[in-house]
Design goal:
two-stranded antiparallel ribbon; 36% helix; alpha/beta; five-stranded parallel beta sheet; 11 helices
């Protein structure tokens, strides 16, 4: 597949107005040799980024906002009452219907802090899902201090734990609820979905369902410390939205938005204690699973001299085509 948009992966329609070749016989045809195939981007393409808090999601989604006018797509934020991460069955139905039928806002990228929603369950086509995961303890520590000190994205906003000077280490020693391992139970339910069992900390079924969804329902799941690579892969497989994203992210001052103003790294003693918990072990299992899959995807890409990733070009061809 090439970067000149002659070929794309997701939601492609092909229009063939005349025979590919006038010659009567051939044994091999490369897709790159199809001069009379016209590729049209789908006007109905929907991408859903059910973003997980404190995973670098603000930095990523701002790339989409910056490129949406140039690349002719819409970006829409999903705001759920009381910051809930799941919806009632009725709201799921309404959301699926609205997203599927809001023709004037297609193509679109929707983003919001919500668990995975199965559109097919409501008789609608499944959108393209993407996400980003972060090492679970890093995410928890970042969120812990974010609630106390805020970030550089909205520095004047007073967070709900403002003024609380208790460090994460002290919190763990005092066994306070803000640092309880159960607070790490977030990435599993976000990929697991809207089932009650997804949101029960330590539920083994939820972990396995999250893994299954990651492979079968998500086009791509990246990791926080490799967001630039995540963007490069998306530019290759979803050029309709992300053409120019790699260059924009690398050159933009927005590539590290929402950095927590003050964050104290936990002690080795605290790290050891947290990693003994079942919740960390399960969340980390999902993270390592996602990391392995993302690395597999990256290995199929070309590494450029500047370290960025790009498509290798079409690596398949059609042959033995009959009748001639």
């Amino acid at each position: 597949m090439s970067n000149d948009r002659n070929t794309i992966v997701a939601h492609v329609s092909y229009t063939i107005n005349e025979p590919l070749y006038e010659k009567s016989s051939f044994s091999e045809v490369s897709p790159a040799e199809f001069p009379r195939i016209k590729t049209q981007y789908s006007k109905d393409l929907i991408v859903i980024y059910n973003r997980i808090p404190k995973t670098g999601s603000t930095s990523f989604i701002n790339v989409a906002y910056d490129l949406c006018r140039t690349n002719s797509f819409n970006v829409i934020h999903l705001n759920i009452t009381k910051n809930s991460h799941f919806m009632s069955l009725a709201d799921q139905s309404r959301f699926v219907h609205n997203v599927s039928h809001w023709v004037t806002k297609k193509p679109a990228l929707y983003h919001g802090h919500v668990g995975f929603i199965n559109f097919q369950k409501f008789g609608a086509p499944q959108p393209v899902f993407i996400n980003i995961l972060r090492e679970p303890l890093d995410r928890l520590v970042s969120y812990y201090y974010f609630l106390r000190y805020g970030d550089n994205y909205r520095p004047h906003l007073i967070r709900k734990k403002h003024g609380n000077k208790v460090t994460f280490d002290e919190c763990v020693k005092q066994k306070k609820p803000d640092c309880h391992p159960d607070n790490m139970w977030l990435q599993i339910p976000f990929l697991c979905g809207q089932s009650a069992f997804c949101w029960i900390p330590g539920n083994e079924w939820a972990l396995q369902e999250a893994k299954r969804n990651l492979i079968k329902e998500y086009l791509l799941v990246g990791v926080t410390d490799q967001i630039s690579s995540f963007i490069s892969v998306l530019e290759t497989v979803l050029p309709q939205f992300f053409t120019g994203a790699t260059e924009h992210f690398s050159s933009s001052k927005k590539n590290y938005l929402r950095k927590t103003n003050k964050k104290i790294q936990p002690s080795e003693e605290t790290i050891i204690q947290i990693k003994k918990s079942l919740i960390w072990q399960m969340e980390n299992e999902l993270y390592e699973f996602a990391l392995q899959q993302f690395q597999f995807v990256k290995n199929q890409m070309k590494v450029n001299e500047n370290g960025t990733l790009s498509d290798k070009g079409i690596q398949f061809k059609f042959e033995k085509i009959y009748p001639k």
